[in-house]
Specification:
Blueprint: E1 14-19, E2 25-30, E3 35-39, H1 53-59
Antiparallel strand pairs: 1-2, 2-3
Length: about 70
């Protein structure tokens, strides 16, 4: 088994992961009381293409979170 990547945006350990029904987005919940949204099959983001966490949260339909 080989490591494919890391989730480095949480300042504490990751407690939960959830995947959207279409499989394109993963949400991680950390012990630092934050949610992070990850596009797992999109192109790597550059600093100029980053979207704020609030914009990401608002664009993710609440009905997809289980």
């Amino acid at each position: 088994m080989s490591k494919l990547g890391e989730l480095k945006c949480h300042s504490s350990r990751v407690l939960h992961l959830s995947q959207s029904p279409d499989g394109s987005t993963v949400v991680s919940a950390g012990a630092d009381e934050t949610l992070r949204f990850w596009e797992v099959f999109g192109p790597p983001m550059t600093d100029s293409s980053r979207v704020s966490d609030l914009d990401s949260l608002l664009s993710f339909k609440r009905s997809l979170i289980r």
